[in-house]
């Protein structure tokens, strides 16, 4: 059975955060960037979160 990954992003005025869950339970990646919604907005924490995750090979 395939796993379902969920990416959550919180963009605030002073920091942007991202978390990735596997099957809604297990934290597999997270990041915190000390910048708000400025020019990078959600892209910086989401890119960092996605890079930290080791993806399984497709079969």
Care to describe what's here?
The protein is α+β, with helices and mostly antiparallel strands and 59 residues long. It has a single domain (5-52), classed as 2-Layer Sandwich (Nucleotidyltransferase, domain 5), CATH 3.30.420.40. 17% of the residues lie in helices and 37% in strands. It contains 1 helix and 3 strands. A 3-stranded antiparallel β-sheet has the order 1-2-3, covered by helices on one side.
Q: What does the main sheet amount to?
A: 3 strands, antiparallel
How many extended strands?
3
The fourth-level CATH homologous superfamily is ATPase, nucleotide binding domain
- Share of residues in helices: 10-25%
SS class: alpha+beta
Query: What form results from the Cα inertia axes?
Result: elongated
Total DSSP helices: 1
The ordered H/E elements are: EEEH
